[in-house]
Amino acid sequence: MQVGNKVVCIDDTFHPVVHASYFQLPRIDETYTIRAVYMGKGVETPHEIGLLLEELHNPMQTLKGGVQAEMGFNAERFRLLNEVTYTEELEHHGQEKA
Fold first, then answer.
1. Dihedral angle sign, alpha carbons of residues 53, 54, 60, 66
2. Residue 21 and residue 15: Cα distance in Å, rounded?
3. What are the backbone dihedrals phi and psi of residue 85, each rounded to the nearest 5 degrees, phi first?
4. pTM (two decimals)
């Protein structure tokens, strides 16, 4: 995943801490545009690839050394828009034959 890619949210179930800390959260099956990719430490995963999305903006947090950064989302919650999963491909071909 890289800046400018379109992604689709595949998991919008968040820890209660996230609901309390974020202004905006992604919704399942919604499409978003990546505006930044970073390596971070998330609430749910110690070392994760994080994404900031053009359509969503959230509060800044203070990191070690006093650096301010916007809170983003674990990349595992998304798939590229043009990525087709094996299951989706099978379902598509099955519908064509019926």
1. positive
2. 10
3. -75, 160
4. 0.74
